[in-house]
Amino acid sequence: MSAGKEYHPAFEEYCECIFELHEDDLDVIRVRIAERLGVSRASVSQMIEKMSRAGLVATEGAHIRLTTDGQELAQRVVRRHRLAERFLTDVLGLSWSDAHREAGKWEHVMSDEVETAMDRLLGAPTTCPHGNPIPGSSWVDPEARPLDSLNSGTEFVVSRIPEELEFTPGLLDFLQASNILPGHRGVVGSRNDDGTLVVDIEGRSVGVSAFASARILVTA
After folding, report:
1. What is the DSSP string of 132-154?
2. What single DSSP character describes residue 127?
3. If one looks up domain 9-71 in CATH, what number appears?
4. With contact defined as beta carbons under 8 Å apart, do 99 and 129 qualify?
5. CATH fold of the domain at 145-219
6. Positions of E strands within 34-150
7. Average pLDDT over residues 154-169
8. Which residues are CB-neighbours of 214 under 8 A, at least 6 positions away?
9. Would you put residue 57 in left (φ > 0), alpha (ψ -120 to 50) or beta?
10. Which residues 6+ apart lie within 8 Å of 218 measured at CB?
C-alpha cells in the first residue's frame, strides 16, 4: 500500500471506525460511531462535518460512507493496526485484549518502513489474530457464516471474530481463554433457554452468549 497524505489521528480513528462498521455489515450512522468510539453524537456530527470538508466522507441521508481518499486512509490505518496485533501476539506474546489496545496506539505512529519490515518479519500474514483480513494482503474470503446459524451436531472451524466483538468489554479475554480462536475446530451442542449456545471446542464445553454466537463467523 503506497504512502498517503498525513492526517490528524482523530481523522484516522473515524475512518477506521467507519471502515470496520461497514466490514461488519452494520449501518454506518452517527449513533453507531458514537457508541463504538465512546463519544457524544454531537462530537460525531462535528467531526463528520470536518471530514466531509476534508474530502474523506460523504453523507447520504443518515448514512455515512468513505470517499476514495477516506477509504485509502482507513485501509492504511486498519492494515497497520492488524499487523501490529499480529506482532504483539505472535512475537511478544501479549493477550488478545492487550494487543488490541496497544495496536490502537501503534496504528497512528507506524512508518511505511516499519510497516514493510513488520510484514516481512511476520511472513506477510493475511489476517489479524482474530481472523479479520489485513488490507493489502492476499486474503481470500472463506465465505464464513454466523456460529448461531448452525444446527446441533454440526462441526465447524472458527474463521473470524469481528471487530464489534473486540470492543465488547471482557469478550476477547473470554474467547481466548475458551479456545474460540481462528483455526480451532468445534461441534455445536445445545441451545439454552436464554439463547446461550453450548459448543464443544478443543476438548472443552463452552457456553457462548447469543450476542457473541450471532457474530462469531465460522466455516462448517
Report:
1. -B-TTS-------EEGGGSPTT-
2. B
3. 1.10.10.10
4. yes
5. SH3 type barrels. (2.30.30)
6. 57-60, 63-66, 145-146
7. 92
8. 146, 147, 148
9. beta
10. 144, 145, 146, 147, 150, 156, 157, 158, 159
Sign of the four-CA dihedral 112, 115, 117, 123: negative
- Give buried/exposed letters for 65-88 (b at 16+ CB in 10 A, else e): ebbebbbbbbbbbbbbbbbbbbbb
pLDDT over threshold 90, residue 1: no
Q: Which residues pair with 206 in a beta bridge?
A: 199
The total of other beta-carbon atoms located within 10 Å of residue 7's CB is: 20
> Can you give the residue ranges of every domain in the chain?
9-71, 145-219
- Which of 163 and 77 is assigned the larger pLDDT? 77
> What's the chain's length in residues?
220
d(CA 130, CA 183): 10
- DSSP 8-class letter at 102: H
Cβ-based neighbour number of residue 31 at 10 Å: 11
Q: Which three cell numbers stand for residue 72?
A: 485509502
Name 160's bridge partners: 217
- The pLDDT confidence band at residue 4, using thresholds 50, 70 and 90, is low
| Cα–Cα distance, 213 to 147 (Å, whole number) | 5
How far apart CA 70 and CA 68 sit, in angstroms, is: 5
